[in-house]
Amino acid sequence: MGFLSIVGNSFGCSASGERLVSAARDGDLQEAKALLDYNPRLARYSTFGVRNSPLHYSAAQGHHEIVALLLESGVDINLRNYRGQTALMQACQYGHWEVVQTLILFRANIHRADYLNGGTALHLAALNGHTRCIRLLLADYIPSIPNFCSILRKKSRNEEYISEFDEGALYDVISRPADGGVTALHMAALNGHAETVHLLLDLGASVNEVTIEDGTTIDLIGAGSTPLHYAACGGNAQCCQLLIAKGASLTTENANGWTPLMVARSWNRDWLEDILSRRPGGRPRLSPSPCLCLPLMSIVEIARQCGWRSSDSPSSGCIDPCVVCLERKCTVAAEGCFHEFCTHCALYLCSTNTASNGGHGPPGSIACPLCRHGIVSFARLAGTEPIITKEIARTSLSLPFCTCSTNEFADTNNNSLETPLDFHCARFPSPIGASFRSLSCKRFPSVNCMGVSESSTSPCLVRCSTRSSSFRRSNSQSDGRKWLCSLNHSSYC
Description:
By secondary structure, the protein is mainly alpha-helical. The chain has a domain at 308-380: Zinc/RING finger domain, C3HC4 (zinc finger) (Herpes Virus-1), CATH 3.30.40. 34% of the residues lie in helices and 5% in strands. The chain is built from 20 helices and eight strands. The chain has helices spanning 2-26, 29-38, 54-61, 64-72, 87-94, 97-105, 121-127, 131-137, 148-152, 159-162, 167-174, 184-190, 194-202, 227-234, 237-245, 260-266, 273-277, 296-306, 343-352, 477-480; strands at 332-334, 340-341, 366-367, 374-375, 378-380, 402-404, 423-427, 437-441. The strands form three sheets. The protein has a three-stranded antiparallel beta sheet with strand order 2-1-5. A three-stranded mixed beta sheet has the order 6-7-8. The chain is flat. It starts with a helix and ends in a 13-residue tail after the last helix. Mean pLDDT is 75; it is low at 1-12, 155-161, 311-317 and 390-493. Its EC number is 2.3.2.27. It catalyses: S-ubiquitinyl-[E2 ubiquitin-conjugating enzyme]-L-cysteine + [acceptor protein]-L-lysine = [E2 ubiquitin-conjugating enzyme]-L-cysteine + N(6)-ubiquitinyl-[acceptor protein]-L-lysine.
């Protein structure tokens, strides 16, 4: 009976983990809070097989409040599933910028790559054209200085500002290749995301990067292809024009001997004939991307130091609350016009706003909602103090099976974790309080606890479609964008 009792309780704790997974997937904040209050270690639970955690599910579904709750419970922010994907990568895949913002503020690692095809969060955001996610991913690399665009264009050599900006680090992030040498610019150009292409080019993405014969990605264009080859395959005229304006070559041949024009003809992109065959007399001037946001780095640093999630009403001594939300006290001021906002609203402005029309400021500034002045950075108000928080210990321990033992512990003073596998939780008398629980570990035979569909949280790196025997394509632009596939799947994603 003792063994059967342990088995029964094993399924009980596993069921609690599945309940947390369901709450994270469905956005049930109250259920998630109740489960984590009962057992905080459930945040480390992961599903059988594909190893998706509640953090993965909440990020993929866009439930940023549950994401923050799980992170505050001590879950590893960079926890991977079986494909090597983190919660940040899945949030970028589906374009949930509020989740990306939360993960970035908690310092998620943007450099982690998928085990199967080498794609990072930036690749996934570019693949689907999520420019808000891209600007948040790069918040720590784009300084809040007025002449940032001039520095990138080599028109300014102000050493004071150059010392604040590591151009090499930004280039390494932007131009990092996945398997096969595919960069984020290749992804965006193939799928016709002109805004994303424009932003990446403004941030220094190279138009001369070429793919290679390596990795798991099936490349039907051929190795040695530039982003312009990919844009020609995708069929988006604006992407082709942006790349040409940045100096992309019309005559570069890939390993198959194809130029971008030949690629366009192969995929029936007849409307690109004039663009890819005409040699421009002079390179057209490319205006700055409206998606560039300079003040983001400054407000992210302030939010990390002083917090951003407080929803308390303004204190009694605060006469003027934030003019945007009218709920929180002002904590930051826009440099230049000195209008004051709460950190939460300033973050929202920087994450969602595009370059102001009629605003007065350098490229990349955002318009103040009160006076239309171009905001380049935010400064912390004198009364805003940094929050001193106790560091949460983060581990990568998983909790696939949690077994509740009905027996008292022989030694209640021994609370050390002896085995980093499965947890056995038991209630026992404690001087701290009746609700105190101690955790210790014992090995337990593996039990299959599948029960949640995993297909929605394991996206393919690049979209794909089948190729007919005659190698002819439909004139539909959407059909021609999807031709790459990861080899871990069969012929379809």
